[in-house]
Write a structure and sequence with these properties.
Largest sheet: 7 strands, mixed
Number of helices: 9
Number of strands: 17
Low-confidence stretches: none
Helix content: 25-40%
Order of helices and strands: EEHEEEEHEEEHEHEEHEHEEEHEHH
Distance between the termini: 27 Å
Shape: globular
Strand order of the largest sheet: 12-11-10-9-13-14-17
Radius of gyration: 18 Å
Length: about 280
């Protein structure tokens, strides 16, 4: 044990932020990397991005959205509780462009937890950073304050128009491109369908675009094969060779098909867990 939670707070409905004691990971972690954790000794291993780290305090921040049994168990924890085990940092760090580059970070939903460390690293490297953050509605928008405090420019969109610009992140990105702004690179993380259309938006203009494939990772070591993805016609493994790849080379349609493979089993597991909890 020893991975004590020192702070926990709700960011949005069913989305929690945890600050966890992990000195080794806090010292060595880099933007784009992730950890693997287990909530208890019978729990499954899940990958979560290192959203923030504080080497001086020896802590890291992770953000979890409840989508199944394990994330429900995790989000029930509070300050003072301990994670059973925590391994990292894993994955390849984000490739950071040269100082002076203008980089647009496009995040959607829980993906904003990945944008936060990316924006931090880009600013430290001397880049001009424009962050576009999207959510379905205002109540589901996370980490706006944290990212906005670092980015040079911040654009917020909501699907329903309840906050920021009404529309999708791709609309805001297209407006930036149409304005003639110099954009050296785009980095995107969020729902796979969102990343697909971000990449389709930048491709005609030849703007290099990195897509972070965190949403497809399961095991985190390359052994389960669930994160197989076709990039440029070749099979790659997101957890050990990524999670970030050239978005213009990713077969997003194949990826979305694979993501739907185990939805039925995941729903059955969550339903069984809910029944057991309700019977106590």
């Amino acid at each position: 044990m020893g991975n004590r939670i020192v702070a926990a707070r709700e960011l949005a409905p069913k989305t929690m932020l945890f600050e966890v004691e992990a000195p080794h990971i806090a010292e060595r972690g880099r933007a784009g990397q992730f950890v693997i954790l287990r909530v208890h000794d019978q729990g499954e291993r899940i990958p979560l991005t290192i959203a923030h780290r504080d080497p001086d305090k020896g802590t890291i921040v992770i953000v979890a959205q409840e989508v199944g049994k394990t994330t429900r168990d995790l989000n029930a924890l509070r300050a003072g509780d301990e994670l059973h085990d925590l391994a990292g940092p894993l994955g390849r760090p984000t490739d950071i462009p040269a100082a002076g580059s203008t980089v647009v970070c496009v995040g959607g939903g829980i993906g904003n937890a990945v944008v936060w460390p990316q924006v931090t690293a880009l600013k430290e490297a001397g880049c001009h950073v424009i962050a576009i953050l999207g959510a379905r509605s205002k109540e589901l928008l996370i980490l706006e304050e944290e990212i906005g405090a670092i980015a040079d420019e911040l654009i917020v969109t909501t699907d329903d128009g309840s906050y920021g610009k009404k529309g999708l992140v791709t609309h805001a990105l297209q407006e930036l491109i149409d304005s003639g702004r110099k954009i050296d690179e785009v980095i995107t993380i969020g729902p796979v369908i969102m990343m697909k259309f971000v990449c389709k938006t930048t491709e005609p203009y030849g703007i290099p675009t990195q897509a972070s494939l965190n949403p497809i990772m399961v095991d985190g070591t390359g052994m389960c094969g669930a994160c197989r993805v076709t990039v440029g016609g070749k099979t790659r493994f997101a957890c050990v060779e990524g999670p970030e790849f050239d978005g213009h080379q990713v077969d997003f349609d194949e990826l979305m098909t694979r993501l739907s493979y185990y939805k039925e089993e995941e729903q059955e597991s969550l339903a069984l867990h809910s029944c057991r909890c309700g019977s106590h």
